[in-house]
Input
Amino acid sequence: MEFFAPKTPEGASRLQRMCDGLRTLAPAYISVTCGPDGAGPDRTHGIIETLRARLGPSADLAPHLTCVGSSRHDIRRLLAAYRTLEVRHLVLIRGDLPPGTREWMGDFPHASDLVAFVRAETGDRFHIEVAAHPEFHPDAASADTDLAYFKRKMEAGATSALTQYFYNADAYFRFVESCARLGVTLPIVPGIMPVTNFERLSRFSEAAGVEIPRWMRKRLEGFAHDPESVRAFGIDVVTRLCERLLANDAPGLHFYTMNSVEPTHAIWAGLRLEPEPAMPVGSGGHA
Output
């Protein structure tokens, strides 16, 4: 389950209160994003500190580290801080430039550079997740180019990958097949975005290059002034998507919670699955 690092004390308090809900879902791990502003890395570190204190030493916490604006010194400092907090799981991504910024910032032009650096600095200490795009990155010159960049990240030392969210399961299956043909067979976990607000979802999807299928968009447009119908329809659609993914051997589900656990709870209940003990990760080797 992924959360973003709140910028306000109220948001941080709300995230702390959600911890009890996290216990009942027993997620394999909890990741915390890193914003593009200069305070983003320290804000993420602060939330990881809070979650460690709240959830205890057994919780698997996965802070995001981004290329944007990061120097080698910055990454070394954060790696040391996360070792102190007994973090053994990282999500390494390129990240987005701050609004209005055109020139690249930082020592790592590509996520593969950051992955290689962290592996060189820490060996096998961390389980490293990287990003994958089943419908291809919006900045990619071509599908083949995007696949080549993804392969480079995996070969640099990633343990597994998390995808951008999607609503077309076939895009995910074809992406996994394409990666396998290139020799990339490490786990690629599908990203799941619960549907709770169509306007926000439409805006996010346009920016991220995510397709909302026409039939789904039309139904959601029809519920424009009925939030409860949007929620009910969204939970049903995403639950069916999750069922199909799991039935076809997806290695797990990674929920983009938008800092609200209720939709994930509802989807989990619809799947009627029992929580399994979280598998230890990052304890040695690229398992």
In short: The first helix runs from residue 9 to 17. Residues 277-287 have pLDDT under 50 and may be disordered. The radius of gyration is 18 Å.
